[in-house]
Amino acid sequence: xxxxxxxxxxxxxxxxxxxxxxxxxxxxxxxxxxxxxxxxxxxxxxxxxxxxxxxxxxxxxxxxxxxxxxxxxxxxxxxxxxxxxxxxxxxxxxxxxxxxxxxxxxxxxxxxxxxxxxxxxxxxxxxxxxxxxxxxxxxxxxxxxxxxxxxxxxxxxxxxxxxxxxxxxxxxxxxxxxxxxxxxxxxxxxxxxxxxxxxxxxxxxxxxxxxxxxxxxxxxxxxxxxxxxxxxxxxxxxxxxxxxxxxxxxxxxxxxxxxxxxxxxxxxxxxxxxxxxxxxxxxxxxxxxxxxxxxxxxxxxxxxxxxxxxxxxxxxxxxxxxxxxxxxxxxxxxxx
Length: 336
Prior knowledge:
Elements: E1 14-19, H1 20-31, H2 45-61, E2 65-69, H3 77-81, H4 94-110, E3 113-115, H5 122-135, E4 139-144, E5 157-161, E6 172-173, H6 175-182, H7 189-196, E7 197-198, E8 203-204, H8 213-221, H9 224-234, H10 237-250, H11 256-264, H12 268-279, H13 304-312, H14 317-327
Parallel strand pairs: 1-2, 1-4, 2-3, 4-5
Antiparallel strand pairs: 5-6, 7-8
Helix pairs in contact: 1-2, 1-4, 2-14, 7-12, 8-10, 10-11, 13-14
């Protein structure tokens, strides 16, 4: 993970947006063998792992504010629209469910900002955080293990995608790195994902248009809006010619006619538009962040007594010590 600029060298303030359920799921599966219990003898390994990773992230990035997105576990707009959404996933371990249910109160008790949008998910909070940061002249880093957040990458929003190895061994993705991974521009990632589909959410892709052909199509045509317009108004002639020119320039086989046939097949456009609707994150949520009011939830530093009490309840002294050092210290640019 690249070393971020110190706070006094940054031109823009930084918002850290955390996909709390994503981190809790990863830490539950990685740390369940520890059987860590809090001081009330309740399972705490996922909560501790999530909090430890966030403290390490705050130590590395020195953000000015932190917002945690949580899933509404009682209702789902996406499941109402598509009952098979995330179908096929195994039932959650009851010990994970308990820690998911306690995460919001733990973070609130620390003084960090949380948002559980009615009927929505943490990814909607991520999307809104990226929009909030742009609107307010901030930068944003989203921390998640979910690829959905790649759609929010831009000049001022990066995604730290947690993988095995923790915070310091996870890739920090910007538009250039995203393009290197998938061959698509950041602004086209949602279109790419909708064409490809997402098995984890039980969303099939457009038949015959996968991870290899979708980037070629988007690079050649610029957007799916241009693709559909050409098919609708010109019977796809420009699409075929453009893709065949690409094949001639790169030495690849011609794919224009084949792709046109697949995109023109009954249900192809409907599948694509269905996926876009389900995959799109809501970016207009009202975030509970008020940077102009010192001491309000989400702003750093935090009160030392709250950090000692709340993190201490998880019963790992080394993490409590780290939390006190990282979460209660003022950035160097604010020291007198």
